[in-house]
Amino acid sequence: MRTTKFGSRIIDAAEEILQLEYRAGSRNYFGEKLEQLAQEFDSYNIGPKQFKGKGKAQPDYCGYTLSVILDRAVRYFNNTKNDYRNANAKWFVDEAKKRGNIRVDKIPQPGCIFVTLRSGGSGYHVGLV
């Protein structure tokens, strides 16, 4: 697949994180690897903490998983801070509209960030295509 140097860094970061083979169990309890990812997100001290404690029910993790992927990619690419990060999936759409420098399409293409309503209308889900 052809991509930019930054796109390659995003792919590398996503592969690092997704190879952890984490998965939330019933009631969104995290395994050890997902708890580590929440703690990495929290280490940037932006917004409320996501890790609620070992063995406790945790918040949805798609937003901060994407944020950590972008954090790593930006750091690997040019060693700066990623300011496009949040644990809330809907924030990504709102921020794209607010900034005006991010294209929002109805059908995302490979390499894009997607945001979609979750089944049952219980909120949004965000990830990489």
Description:
The chain has 129 residues and is mostly helical. It has one domain (5-128). Helix content is 41%, strand content 8%. The protein is built from 4 helices and 2 strands, in the order ααααββ. The chain has a two-stranded antiparallel sheet. The protein is globular, with a radius of gyration of 15 Å. The model has no long low-confidence stretch (mean pLDDT 79).
Helix content: 40-55%
Oligomer: single chain
Elements, N to C (H/E): HHHHEE
Distance between the amino and carboxyl termini: 13 Å
Outline, from the CA principal axes?
globular
Q: Give Rg in angstroms.
A: 15 Å
Q: Provide a count of the helices.
A: 4
Descriptive terms for the model:
single chain; mainly alpha; two-stranded antiparallel ribbon; 4 helices; 2 strands; globular
